[in-house]
């Protein structure tokens, strides 16, 4: 949040005092009024509780509460740290005939009864989780909507980590820029629907970004008039074993829809692959003896042959994507196995595989996968730095980290993707984009974006269990949707 603060400070120096807070509060009040109108038909007479902490986040909430009170809402502000409540906001609320209480019991009762709660306990200035005085609100029952001011209180703005408890919101109104904590789980799951209110803040280039349709459309490889299959790129897939022949089919299915001109398969499932996908080139032996490819995918359903396949692929001078059993093997070898590479490497672990990779990098026992899921940003960054490779960390929020420091979080994911084999499809898809010439960060984040949309498409609305093969089958429709202006 240092960059946001710097941008705010720079902008504030040019504006009359309080301008940004007034803009923020006006946007916040407008969203609250829309929500109340939607739920109750009108703002007038509705019950609103403002939870106001000790900083400017509380100030925003108090000013917005004042605006709602002027429209006839019955507003009560609960001051969590009475001596530090924002003086201007408090005065505005009082002038609008809002009630103020410092009794936490009264506050909790109001909170539970309210049609709408404004969570202004703490925003980007919050550190170390909710303090004791605020914790009961995170646990209390409520019947109304909770609108988080800038960020759900208790969520770390920079990382999405939740040390302790946090206030779950239905809507988060964030000011100026999306904070990473709103995009990365577990924080993202507390934010509800996120609305951005412009306050005239021009954010500097962010360290953590999320692609949108237009960004992905610009990245996707599209054949030109002069293209042929080789110029579009050939992706090599070394996947599948006697135990998991299906992983080969799924990785190939993803690869066929990723933009490469051809897919070359090596491995024990060649017969099944060709029966299902006659367009695939198959070669005996491992990656070293296969014809020229522009990128390798190694590891899905890997089995016995994975050690050799990984060694051969890593010895090549083309980008290599390592997934699944390939990652387990790489964890055994440690980062040194990538030291001599002349082309980029993309690692696509889930948190269990990430734990093995970290153990391989640092020695010792693997960290618990659950702990890594609670600190996705830090985990992806650490792996990227340790292995000097691009890392796509899978799971409830997919995070892609480049060794150079850039991070992208994927906004399209859906938990319907938590189905066996969908990771294999993602590996093939991302490998295909690598072969088509995308940089690893672009290939990984565009693949995650398409894969998330395909998961949604395959699950349908309002959602039903789907399969990895159906996710692969949805990819063409998703490409078209993304490329439609
Ligand atoms: N800057 C701007 O131009 C604009 C900023 N805007 C708004 O300001 C917000 C940032 O305001 P901020 O910097 O005052 O910090 P904020 O989030 O209110 O928290 C700091 C206070 O909370 C306390 N505290 C700390 N940790 C805590 C915890 N875990 N649990 C409980 N309390 C905790 C801490 O107390 P202390 O440590 O001092 O005791 C300190 O007093 C931002 O999110 C946005 O809403 C908008 O108006 C647009 C323009
Ligand atoms: N809760 C979730 N929400 C969103 N996506 C998820 C969730 N759980 C898993 N996924 C996604 O599903 C895919 C599962 O991949 P992976 O764990 O490799 O499974 P498999 O090995 O069975 O293919 C990944 O793309 C991952 O990001
Ligand atoms: K808040």
Describe the structure.
The chain is an alpha/beta fold and 485 residues long. The chain has two domains: 2-206, YjeF N-terminal domain (Rossmann fold), CATH 3.40.50; 213-483, Ribokinase (UDP-N-acetylmuramoyl-L-alanine:D-glutamate ligase). It contains 20 helices and 17 strands. The chain has helices spanning 2-12, 19-40, 56-70, 87-95, 104-113, 135-139, 187-191, 213-219, 229-232, 245-256, 270-276, 306-314, 324-333, 351-362, 369-373, 376-387, 422-435, 440-459, 468-473, 475-483; strands spanning 47-52, 74-79, 99-101, 116-120, 145-149, 171-175, 193-197, 208-209, 234-238, 262-266, 281-283, 295-298, 320-322, 345-347, 390-393, 399-401, 407-409. The protein has a ten-stranded mixed beta sheet, with helices on both faces. A seven-stranded parallel beta sheet has the order 3-2-1-4-5-6-7, with helices on both faces. Helix 6 links the parallel strand 4 and strand 5. Helix 2 packs across helix 3, helix 10 packs across helix 17 and helix 13 (324-333) packs parallel to helix 14. The protein is elongated, with a radius of gyration of 25 Å. The model has no long low-confidence stretch (mean pLDDT 94). It binds ligand NPW, adenosine-5'-diphosphate and potassium ion (K). The site of ligand NPW has 29 residues, from helix 1, helix 2 and helix 3.
Q: So, CATH architecture of the largest domain?
A: 3-Layer(aba) Sandwich
Ligand inventory: ligand NPW, adenosine-5'-diphosphate, potassium ion
Q: Which class of secondary structure composition applies to the elements?
A: alpha/beta
**Oligomeric state of the chains in view:** single chain
Shape: elongated
Query: What's the level 1 CATH class of the largest domain?
Result: Alpha Beta
Count the beta strands. 17
**In terms of per-residue confidence, which ranges show pLDDT below 50 for 5 or more consecutive residues?**
none
| Domain tally | 2
Taking all Cα atoms into account, the compactness measure Rg is 25 Å
CATH superfamily of the largest domain: Ribokinase
CATH topology of the largest domain: UDP-N-acetylmuramoyl-L-alanine:D-glutamate ligase
Largest sheet: 10 strands, mixed
The order of strands across the largest sheet is 8-17-16-15-14-13-12-9-10-11
Amino- and carboxy-terminal Cα gap: 33 Å
- Total DSSP helices: 20
User: Quick check: average pLDDT?
Assistant: 94
Helix residue percentage: 40-55%
Strand share of the residues? 5-15%
């Amino acid at each position: 949040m240092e960059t946001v603060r710097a941008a705010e400070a720079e902008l504030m120096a040019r504006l009359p005092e309080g301008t940004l807070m007034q803009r923020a509060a006006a946007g916040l009040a407008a969203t609250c009024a829309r929500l109340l109108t939607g739920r109750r038909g009108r703002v007038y007479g509705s019950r609103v509780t403002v939870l106001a902490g000790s900083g400017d986040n509380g100030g925003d909430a108090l000013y917005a509460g004042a605006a709602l009170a002027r429209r006839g809402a019955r507003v009560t502000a609960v001051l969590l740290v009475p001596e530090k409540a924002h003086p201007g906001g408090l005065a505005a609320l009082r002038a609008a005939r809002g009630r103020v209480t410092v009794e936490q019991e009264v506050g909790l009762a109001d909170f539970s009864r309210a049609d709408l709660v404004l969570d202004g306990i703490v925003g980007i200035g919050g550190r170390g989780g909710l303090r004791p005085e605020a914790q009961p609100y995170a646990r209390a029952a409520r019947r109304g909507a909770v609108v988080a001011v800038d960020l759900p209180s208790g969520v770390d703005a920079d990382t999405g980590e939740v040390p302790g408890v946090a206030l779950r919101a239905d809507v988060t109104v964030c000011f100026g820029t999306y904070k990473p904590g709103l995009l990365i789980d577990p924080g993202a799951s507390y934010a509800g629907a996120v609305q951005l209110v412009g306050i005239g803040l021009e954010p500097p280039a962010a360290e953590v970004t999320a692609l949108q349709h237009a960004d992905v459309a610009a990245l996707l490889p599209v054949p030109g008039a002069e293209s042929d299959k080789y110029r579009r790129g050939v992706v090599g897939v070394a996947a599948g074993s006697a135990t998991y022949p299906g992983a080969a089919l799924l990785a190939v299915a993803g690869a066929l829809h990723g933009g490469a001109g051809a897919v070359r398969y090596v491995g024990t499932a060649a017969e099944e692959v060709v029966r299902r996908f006659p367009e695939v080139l198959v070669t005996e032996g491992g990656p070293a003896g296969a014809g020229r490819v522009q990128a390798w995918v190694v590891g899905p359903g890997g089995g016995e042959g994975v050690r050799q396949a990984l060694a051969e692929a890593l010895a090549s001078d083309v980008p290599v994507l390592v997934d699944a059993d390939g990652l387990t093997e790489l964890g055994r070898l440690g980062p040194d196995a990538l030291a001599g590479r002349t082309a980029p490497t993309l690692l696509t672990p889930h948190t269990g595989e990430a734990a093995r990779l970290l153990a391989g990098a640092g020695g010792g026992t693997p960290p618990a996968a659950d702990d890594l899921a609670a600190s996705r940003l830090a985990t992806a960054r650490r792996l990227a730095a340790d292995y000097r490779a691009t890392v796509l960390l899978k799971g409830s929020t997919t995070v892609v980290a480049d060794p150079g420091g850039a991070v992208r979080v994927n906004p399209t994911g859906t938990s319907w993707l938590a189905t066996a084999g969908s990771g294999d499809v993602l590996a093939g898809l991302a490998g295909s984009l690598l072969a088509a010439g995308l940089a690893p960060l672009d290939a990984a984040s565009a693949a995650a974006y398409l894969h998330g949309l395909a998961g949604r498409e395959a699950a349908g609305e309002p959602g039903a269990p789907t399969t990895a093969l159906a996710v692969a089958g949805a990819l063409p429709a998703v490409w078209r949707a993304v490329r439609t202006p």
